[in-house]
Amino acid sequence: MQTEDIQIRIEDDRTGLEIETLKRAILDNLFYIQGKFPEIATLNDYYMALAYTVRDRLIHRWLISSQTYTKVQPREVCYLSAEFLMGPHLGNNLINLGIYDRMRQAVQELGLNFEALLEQEEEPGLGNGGLGRLAACYLDSMATLDIPSVGYGIRYEFGIFDQDIHDGWQVEITDKWLKNGNPWEIARPEWAFEVKFGGRTERYTDEKGRSRVKWIPDRMVQGVPYDTPILGYETSSTNTLRLWSAQAVESFDFRAFNAGDYYGAVGNKVFSENLSKVLYPNDEQIQGKQLRLEQQYFFVSCSLQDMIRTHCDRRGLPISIFHEKFTVQLNDTHPAIAVAELMRLLLDEHGIEWDQAWHITQSTMAYTNHTLLPEALERWAVGLFGSLLPRHLEIIYEINGRFLNEVRLRYPKDDERIRRMSIIDESGDRYVRMANLATLGSYSINGVAELHTQLLKQDVLHDFAEMYPERFNNKTNGVTPRRFMVLSNPRLTKLITSKIGDHWIRNLQELRQLESFVEDLEFRSEWRQIKLAIKRDLANYIQEQNGIEVNVDSIFDIQAKRFHEYKRQHLNVLHIITLYNRLKANPNLDITPRTFIFGGKAAPGYQMAKLIIKLINSVADVVNSDPDVRDRIKVVFLKDYNVKFAQRVYPAADLSEQISTAGKEASGTGNMKFSMNGALTIGTLDGANIEIREEVGAENFFLFGLTASKVSQIKAKGYDPMQYYIANSELKAAIDRINSGFFSKGDTALFKPLVGSLMYQDPYLLFADYQSYIDVQTQVGEAYRDQDHWTRMSILNTARMGKFSSDRSIREYVKEVWKIDPLKICPPNEPCSIH
Ligand code: BZD
């Protein structure tokens, strides 16, 4: 059938947006999908019925989008990411469909609790932190801006672990997010692909007499796609998140089985299904595990095969123009094997000559770097790599050989440079450097904030930036205001919209109009009331979760992010202990009351990060129950920080802690989410903090600490933390307090590794930044006493955050990197010719 002939025109319970229709649809789905009648339906049954009601309304738009793409054959972005930290879908889809309030009413009229139903959704936590959440924000913005796109990743059966706290320690619990079913995805087993592993290669001569290579693998896995619709805000554009799930290949199984090798056959099934079993919970620390490389290759190969099938089979286009129709954005080096895999597919499966294959590959790939930390730069031992992907290793050697010849021509006799730029690290054991492969194979390489891009060009990829300056660019991160303002902060959204209308939701720069209300007394009072009400909600949550009563008039001082030494949660702790020491010395000291709130997970194998969590909980135990403190400071560690919980936390903050060692945090995105919701930032000149401060104004930002260049200078000179310890009595007192066993029931050994690391190495310069941090925290305390002034600063933070919408980031990628035109999708039941 010709696609033009298909008219999707449905007007029934699956598309209607009226309250009565929504109610009927929910009950219908409860009956026919969940197979329950209301009297015995559980909360989850109702959640599923509601989710299917919303999904039905997405599907119509999704199919129109997909039909339009098939017909128009636009250029598309494929966002390849090992992580998509989507967070719950229901609320977001209701916002983007524009039926949030209507659905709430429909649900309430059915006698159900809308909030409880939203809460019921299991979070798809298929990511670690910033990088995975960025991918999710970008999907939202690409759909909102009508950019044809697909997100490709892995459907992990178990996402990031759930965090529990036992006796102050982090305990990891398997995240069984699929246990109640996932109403948002549709399996497409008919579009599965096979992925090969291991074995060897063979040369042969094809029918045209050309020398070709064949890969004879020793294992094979099938990738089954699961599709989730991604609807944009106030548009019909509905893109796809396609996640691959690994399954055993039937035929492979049978071969072993027929030969009598039953265990071998079952073993293959186990191997296959292990592939997409669990997300690696390490952020910014690589382990070099074989399974991780298998996961990366698995999803990259499925995704590229999928693109080629769409291009050649479905659209009937020649492979020679593949790069005109597809561009691939590599979310860090996790999918960087795509460079070698696309080469392999073009050379071995499509019989294309090397030069043309390289041209297509290099015109297709674009690479985003997210970190400069040496321990996070991916490299694979050559032996492991070759045994798993023998053909790819050959291709990489060939790419490298040709490239190094060019380098030699350009920089004769510069052997050091050759060694640095080689894809193969040969300084000791041999490794494949994935950042070099990604850089070399891409037409665009970007960092995620101005400073980060500058450091990337200066440091990690310096030689490449010198040789190919035109390929390097910056794309400062952004976050979606739909999830992180409209959905998570309905009160503030309502106030803002009552003053400036609702266009700011798709054009965040319009928040600037709020500046004219800063002088409006009533507006400031409403702003303050709202913050207070949200803080009350969080206080109730803290009471429920931790049994701690907190003062809503105190400063809600929040640090919520992954635990890592470079993020310096322990610097925050040193401030808490310093205040505590002051109160112990002078119980009548007049300090601005504060509630210190922490949230975040540590990688399960990262002992120091776990010890910092233990320290926070230990300090909390002491401080919260000391009568001398008299409720002036409280310390709260909220367990299991995830997207759902983040949405509750950002709106409630007065103060956002963004205190990484300058030069270490590539961008940060939590910093943006806090500030958009009217929190003030205490931060270093690191990542996007610099740009946030530029936007909101230095007078509305609490800056402290060394600059990135000062940090490298000090390190180059030979940094000695002990000098700071000796010279600074308050710092010494704080450290001694930990060392004495005061927070650990007399156990002086417990925090030794942490204290020792600070006193003798302090790789993240906490001691050097300590005094500056303490001084600025004192200013924060003073500033908060002038509530009226604080409110002005808070309003100005929100008003000036327009730059940090992910819509702005995506517009820049579209214009400067991808060069894709938006494609408008017709609304359902409205024949139109807008594209
Ligand atoms: O990426 C983060 C950076 O640390 C942040 O500064 C930045 O804002 C975000 C988005 O650009 N990096 C990560 O989150 N990295 C990882 O999660 C990760 C995961 C697996 C392996 C290595 C890194």
TrEMBL record:
Its EC number is 2.4.1.1. The modification N6-(pyridoxal phosphate)lysine is found at residue 673. Keywords: Carbohydrate metabolism, Glycogen metabolism, Glycosyltransferase, Pyridoxal phosphate, Transferase. InterPro entries: Glycg_phsphrylas, Glyco_trans_35, Pyridoxal_P_attach_site. The keyword Transferase applies. SUPFAM superfamilies: UDP-Glycosyltransferase/glycogen phosphorylase (SSF53756). One of its GO terms (molecular function) is glycogen phosphorylase activity. GO terms for biological process: glycogen catabolic process. Its cofactor is pyridoxal 5'-phosphate. It catalyses: [(1->4)-alpha-D-glucosyl](n) + phosphate = [(1->4)-alpha-D-glucosyl](n-1) + alpha-D-glucose 1-phosphate. It holds the Pfam family Phosphorylase. PANTHER family: GLYCOGEN PHOSPHORYLASE (PTHR11468), GLYCOGEN PHOSPHORYLASE, LIVER FORM (PTHR11468:SF3). Belongs to the glycogen phosphorylase family. Phosphorylase is an important allosteric enzyme in carbohydrate metabolism. Enzymes from different sources differ in their regulatory mechanisms and in their natural substrates. However, all known phosphorylases share catalytic and structural properties. Allosteric enzyme that catalyzes the rate-limiting step in glycogen catabolism, the phosphorolytic cleavage of glycogen to produce glucose-1-phosphate, and plays a central role in maintaining cellular and organismal glucose homeostasis. This is Alpha-1,4 glucan phosphorylase. It comes from Leptolyngbya boryana NIES-2135.
